[in-house]
Amino acid sequence: MTLPQTPSFRLDGRRALVAGGSSGIGLACAVALADAGAEVTLAARSGDKLAAIVSDMTAAGLKAKALALDVTDVAGTEAAIAANGPYDVLVNSAGLAIHTAALDTTEADFDAVSTLNLKGAYFLTRAVAKGLIAAGKPGSLINITSQMALVGGIDRAVYCATKHGVEGFTKAMAIEWGQHGIRVNTIGPTFIRTPLTEPTFANPDRVAWIMGKIKLGRLGEVTDIMGPVVYLASDASGLMTGAHLSLDGGWTAD
Fold first, then answer.
1. Domain span at residue 84?
2. How many domains does the chain have?
3. Which of 89, 98, 176, 192 could form a disulfide with 220 if both were Cys (CB 3.0 to 4.6 A apart)?
4. Is residue 151 part of a domain?
5. Would residue 174 count as lying in a domain?
């Protein structure tokens, strides 16, 4: 009897691009992909910070490069991807949250959040897919959204709107590009402890709300993202596309 073989979680020989790779979730994803054997390009607006991270990663024996990139600059992003790609794997972790009550949302805040979270994510995903299609290669494109891509939240009307939007275009792109072997999925984390989220955790009322929703009774850590992102990037998830992988501790289970 010939036993089935587990598809590989390894990413040797593949090139990955991680947008928002200079900190938090994006950095954890970059390290995870590199640990699995990928050559990882970390992209963010802060070139100096990226250089230090790449130095640390290469010193640890990982394959890493830096790319200064502002995904809100659509033309610049498309040019950078065309010049440096194609990338077999994309992880888009670039994002912005400005939390206010819906009645207090300013047009400037709406534009800033939606330009990065929705417009930037859309055209970055499209740019990487263009390169893959031109090269005749399959690929795995992963957008980091949120549990708030499935539900609503206090003071998060604009943020929720953008993350719901990313879920929508991810499904549509998965349908269009499946014929090219390109998979498009999302990861939806709950509240993850990073420097950017510390102000939320300093508010006792917000912490009480959060802990009342997370069934596992703890906040997320960036390490909680690392295994799932390797899974989605690898052949182990070869039949998964147009899907949302929830890492929410049970938040959306009820």
1. 15-193+222-244
2. 1
3. 192
4. yes
5. yes
The conformation of residue 100, written as its DSSP 8-state character, comes to B
**Tens-place pLDDT, residues 225-247:** 999 999 999 999 999 999 999 99
Q: How far apart are CA 103 and CA 142, in angstroms?
A: 32
Residue in 10, 49, 64 with CA at minimum distance from that of residue 231: 10
Mean per-residue pLDDT for 128-145?
A: 98
* Annotated active-site residue in 87, 122, 159, 231: 159
Q: How does pLDDT run across 9-49, given as a tens digit for each residue?
A: 999 999 999 999 999 999 999 999 999 999 999 999 977 88
Both tokens of residue 21? 């790779």
Q: Residues 59-63: what's their mean pLDDT?
A: 98
Least confident of 83-92, 94-103, 135-144: 94-103
CATH code: domain of residue 42: 3.40.50.720
pLDDT exceeds cutoff 80 at 52: yes
Decide if 231 is catalytic.
no
Sequence-ordered alpha helix ranges (H) in 19-136: 24-35, 47-59, 74-84, 107-114, 121-135
How far apart CA 145 and CA 160 sit, in angstroms, is 9
Q: Which of 51, 29, 49 is nearest to 40 (CA)?
A: 29
| 8 Å CB contact between 118 and 74 | no
Residues 6+ apart with CB under 8 A from 7: 234, 235, 236, 238
pTM, rounded to two decimals: 0.95
Residue 214 lies in a domain: no
